Amino acid sequence: MVQSNADLKASKSPEEQLNQQDPDKDGFVDKAWNFFSSMKLGLFLLLIIAAASIAGTIIPQNGSPQEYGSLYSLYNTLGLVDMYHSWWFQTLLFLLAMNLFICSVNRASSLWRVFSNPRIKRADGEISRMDHSFHADKAISEEGVVQQVKDACRDKGYRVFTEQEPGRTFLYAEKGRFGIWGSLISHIGLLVILIGAVIGIYAGQEGQMPAEVHSTFHIRDVQGLGTVDGDFDVRVDDFKTVYRPDGSIQAWISRLTILDKGQEILTKDIEVNHPLEFRGFKIYQSFYGANIPTKVTSKEIPQGYDFTINEGDFIPVPGTNLGVLAYKYVPDFDPQYGLQSKSDQPNNPRMVYVLYRGKEQIGVGAAELGKAEVLAGGEGQITFQRYAPYTGLTIRRDPGVAIVWLGCAVLLIGLGLSFYMPHRRIWAIVEGNNGKSSLSFGGFAQKNKIAFEQDFTQLRDKL
Amino acid sequence: MTDMVAQENLLFYITFAAYGLATFLYIGFLVIRNQSLARIGYYSIVIGVLANTAALALRAIVAGYVPLTNGYEFLLAFSWGIASVYLFAEKKYQIPVAGAFVVPTAWLILAYVAVLMDPASRAARPLMPALQSNWLTYHVITAMFSYGAFAFSFGVGIMYLWKKSAESREKQRGVVAFLPSSEKLDEIGYRLIAIGFPLLTLCIITGAIWAEYAWGRYWSWDPKETWSLITWLIYAAYLHARFTYGWKGNRAAWMAVIGFLAVLFTFFGVNYFLSGLHSYAK
Ligand code: HEM
């Protein structure tokens, strides 16, 4: 690229500098390439994605058709019901990725030139048109002034290059040259994040597993993980809820053991924020509950029915108008404590229930587990067999996550370079004339101009 | 225990009063241009920040966790971020008039707490399991500093717009004449966004890491997340428009203003108008 005078003023856009390379290319491919690398498209995409995202936060996402009422079919056609996964939103993201990629490729070589081959020589006129410049006549020799300029710049942490001609020395000093890579690295980071996200969408899987304590399940039997290639078992050794003295919940903790062909591999306590990771799977503590196998019989239907119920379920007694609300499980029941458990230990496990006839509440009781409870003088019987707590596990596999984190790290490095390592450049010409000399000195910074101005003022005062 | 709660409450009102006093002093300074008003205003913010810090520290002791989890605690931290970034930026860029445009935001946030939040919603509450994460702490700390920087750029953006409209009408008298030159305001506004943007990025990333640990999803498009992304996109557009097209001046100032409005909406709007995972922060 021929460096034009345009880059002497930092206020001139680098886009102009960098895109000037081939003004006479105008084939279709080049036009498309230029379109995709243009910042206009970039800005348009950033703002349109922002605007679309706003719409997505106002229109409820993934609701049931009723929530949207008469607008449902319109929203559904426009992809507004699950907007962030709609084809048009994904297309916008894809265009952004293309834009970023092409613009990064375009700029890489020019950046490399600025980075590795700084232009040392500048004409006098160029220097005086820079953001900051001054001219001074000196009473000492050319070499002396060159040395002064070098020392002053080095003191401020600049790297200095010189090039000599008879009677003239050109100087170039720069600081923060790694900073020019910042934007490119940020863009690459963002691309990597998008790639990781796409991998997650296509290769990630998630399943839910309510697993009773002491039970073992195979990873492939988890709903939602059907096709995965994992081959191990998970055993739930324990599950408990830890309460604080004030009764609020501090943690849910499950102790899990991973088994490979019957061999114990590892055991870990998981809780919210502390999942277990194994062969690319992550097992999260995400919900809990208890299964209660229950048998109900009545005079008319003595063989009865078997159910598995949960706390809070309502069980009709077949052939009667009676019904039982399985209200609450109390591990250590004591009438004096009412519904509160006397201790955490299952010393006297009971199921507290409410008996209804029709809609009317006709009695309450605390049924012993495993023993038939006689209802309404013998019209029916109910047996709460066991109380089997389960832990609700969410199991995920997302091969894209590591890539996303890598992208985040790259993005942060890029931003750090971009904003905390501003590239600052200075040029000088020293012309000797019979033991005297004249100095032209100028420079600019693309970013952090205030700091550069300070540097520059201090240098001017020294010289 | 109740003693500490009372002290914390007292500290809140000291902070509130100090920022309020500073607001009036700085506005007074803007109007009558007496240097000592700005100086007292500055000290009054220093006192406010000290009280604000102490209030947060006491809350940490009472609650037993880093106090950045419910709406009250976050607003207290938000005002802390604005005020402490202000102390730093006023000294660094030598623009005491900015106080009249930045400090009111910190004060109004606390006024919102004082007027609209009842004691029950201010009280320390036990942390639900999902909130017990160091990543959450980093998430909110980075949010605080980046929002502080954006609040400053917002104030500077307003100053810019005012200054510029007066310049274009060639009415350069009184208060407006006293504002720094529009070029300087423009550059300062940019610097603050350049500081805030990487921090906002860090804030979003630490939030994603936390979500990954807590729910197994680093991104779920919940409204709060999405609004922080919208804010991020607006500032990214600002940086690019500025850098490649030299979009400075009015357009840049408007974007700085809009960016901060998006920040405010991310906090207030999302909690009060939209729903999602983060709404437990209410
Ligand atoms: C949200 C997405 C993006 C992020 C986070 C990002 C990040 C950055 C950063 C941090 C800078 C340095 C800016 C400064 O120092 O003021 C930059 C510069 C730049 N970006 Fe982006 N960018 C994004 C999107 C894009 C897109 C879509 C394009 C496509 C054209 C683009 C093209 C450029 C250009 C041409 C520069 C000038 C850089 C230079 O010469 O240093 N960016 N970007």
UniProtKB/TrEMBL annotation, chain A:
Compartmental location: Membrane
Domain of life per record: Bacteria
Span list, region Disordered: 1-25
Record's protein name: Cytochrome c biogenesis protein
Organism of provenance: Heliobacterium mobile
One example of a Gene Ontology biological process annotation: cytochrome complex assembly
Pfam families: ResB
Topology within the bilayer: Multi-pass membrane protein
Positions of the ResB-like domain: 39-359, 384-456
One of the record's GO cellular component terms: membrane
InterPro entries attached to this UniProt entry: Cyt_c_bgen_Ccs1/CcsB/ResB, ResB-like_domain
Entry's transmembrane regions: 41-59, 87-105, 178-203, 402-421
Keywords: Cytochrome c-type biogenesis, Membrane, Transmembrane, Transmembrane helix
UniProtKB/TrEMBL annotation, chain B:
Residues making up the signal peptide according to the UniProt record: none
Segments forming domain Cytochrome c assembly protein: 70-278
Record keywords, A-Z: Cytochrome c-type biogenesis, Membrane, Transmembrane, Transmembrane helix
InterPro entries per the UniProt record, alphabetical: Cyt_c_assembly, Cyt_c_biogenesis_CcsA, Cyt_c_biogenesis_CcsA/CcmC
Membrane protein topology class: Multi-pass membrane protein
GO cellular component: plasma membrane
Any GO molecular function: heme binding
Originating gene: resC
TM region(s), chain numbering: 12-32, 44-66, 72-89, 96-115, 135-162, 192-215, 227-245, 252-274
The protein's name in its UniProt record: Cytochrome c biogenesis protein
GO biological process, one term: cytochrome complex assembly
Keyword Ribonucleoprotein: no
Top-level taxonomic group: Bacteria
Subcellular location: Membrane
UniProt cross-references to Pfam families, sorted A to Z: Cytochrom_C_asm (PF01578)
